[in-house]
């Protein structure tokens, strides 16, 4: 292994083990390590890569790690940085998934999870508020988000909703700038996709489990998911709870809780889901499936960063996709709240967690730990 590859491996193993706090915190840690401390990139180069990650699907902080590895040591650096950033979190989630499957039905474990679930709902709700301020840049984007929320609550297909949102905002921005499109064209395009969206998530009976289906489902999610990692909830619920019938809402909440208490990318929630469904083989298949597209997108988009960022059309399209993503996220949060808020104690935990985040900016990991303590102390009073 060359010196540069060794440096990348050491750095990203360290970050994968210690990077708590979500994508924004991860990116801040990356900036400190590769710009401030090691001088591998300039401020401008780092911002160019950050802009590129916002224009492609997948987990932003993981894609930043992959981009940095590619810049530092070419194709081998791309693989080393990405794998070393993902692997520690995957192994931690795998251990917790094993404990969950073995002990999750014990009363003590149930009490802990009962206290954690309302905190998870609060964390996602807070993220929706923060992201909404950045996403709803104008009235059209705000309306797209509300439309996506309404369609999702009616059982819409998430991919059709995202596509419709992107087309509506793209056409609206073109009409405003005189670029040859009309707002009515965009609305018509969105309306054309809406029936397909509404039909796409009709209730289905549980499908027989299959490792190839598990892989393809996570590969699809990794290839199309824009916006915050929390949008992952909408896709997981659509595919594994509603579509395939392999998980319950309670299991999905447990998976998200585990993803929150571990460092590294939130997408390692896939590791937990895969283990619950099929043990270690399922965990490996799910993890590879959801992260594989990120490596491909970075490899393709890296040389095109400046050209992609300069495209007004792509920027408008992605603004619409992001607004629709926020609507999907809000819808699934409302649905999961029904599984989490089972009594006054759960509602109180939610309210306290939201208040602490809004007033103090406390790290989500500490809130989840506090929720576990409250759940333990409540001991079945939920």
Short description:
It contains 16 helices and no strands. By secondary structure, it is mostly helical.
Task: Describe what this molecule looks like in 3D.
It is a single chain. By secondary structure, the chain is mostly helical. It has two domains: 3-86, no CATH class; 132-340, no CATH class. The chain is 80% helix and 0% strand. The chain has 16 helices and no strands. The chain has helices at 3-18, 23-37, 43-53, 60-103, 107-135, 139-153, 158-177, 183-199, 211-224, 232-243, 249-261, 269-301, 305-309, 312-340, 344-360, 364-378. Helix 2 (23-37) crosses helix 4 and helix 7 (158-177) runs antiparallel to helix 14.
Question: In total, how many domains does the architecture comprise?
Answer: 2
Number of helices: 16
Distance from N terminus to C terminus (CA atoms, Å) equals: 53 Å
Instruction: Please give the radius of gyration in angstroms.
Output: 21 Å
> Could you tell me the strand content as a percent range?
under 5%
Helix content: over 70%
For this structure, the quaternary state is single chain
- Mean pLDDT across residues: 82
Structural class: mainly alpha
Order of helices and strands: HHHHHHHHHHHHHHHH
**How many strand elements?**
0
Given as residue ranges, the uncertain stretches (5+ residues, pLDDT < 50) are 199-203
Largest sheet: none
Assign an overall shape: globular
